[in-house]
């Protein structure tokens, strides 16, 4: 029987479409480059610096963003410093809105122990949860856990907070590599939310959080 539900945050509860567009737009305004060019470089550098960060000695996300932004400052001769750009970006992250179907959490928060687990720094993760009034009992960030999904450590720390056996917990996330494989490695059943309908053969999967209650009844 399911007693606890762990949700990923960005891409699952909160929309992260064009996550880096605000800071890239600011950089474009302060340089001669096009925003699309900067955004393309930003995404590529993100893949470079964050790749396998869960296997390295822990550093908060800000550490990797500083490295990334420093490269962009040098390439585009930007007038700002890496801390100012990172602060601007974190503020933009905190303003992202929850998906409309996230309202289902209001209906399940009194029936299940609801937790949020996110690869994020505290400052913007806590703000986006608060601004969107997302119902939950527990929130654990990678910064607080000093570990990143898909590492088992971050899952184990949250389970300890929830005080529920993993066999009674399910995890809902939008990434197979980070969320589903991480949950599986920790011995937690995962449910993929596939909003883009990219993984039609994956099971169990949902396309909207509104499908979750009925699926839980069948588990």
From TrEMBL:
What keywords is this UniProt entry annotated with?
Hydrolase, Magnesium
Give the matching Pfam families. Hydrolase (PF00702)
InterPro entries (alphabetical): HAD-like_hydrolase (IPR051400), HAD-like_sf (IPR036412), HAD-SF_hydro_IA (IPR006439), HAD_sf (IPR023214), PGP-like_dom2 (IPR023198)
Say yes or no: keyword Magnesium present. yes
**Gene Ontology MF term list:** hydrolase activity
Its cofactor is: Mg(2+)
Biological process annotations from GO: small molecule metabolic process
Q: Give the matching NCBIfam families.
A: HAD-SF-IA-v1
Q: What is this protein called?
A: Haloacid dehalogenase superfamily enzyme, subfamily IA
